[in-house]
Amino acid sequence: MDDSLKAAAQETVKAVDSSLAFTLKDQTGKEVRLSDFAGKIVVLEWLNPECPFVQAHYK
User: pTM value?
Assistant: First the structure.
């Protein structure tokens, strides 16, 4: 990863450190904390499976 991109990502993480307390259940029902991935790049995606555009995208 380009050093400037890495620095920008690290600054963003510092700005949203409170998000590390975020917890959800995975597809198997296991509780997963965002803090479990500290130090890693994480992409979170929310979607509505009832949305026709989402349905078309994931076909």
Answer: 0.44
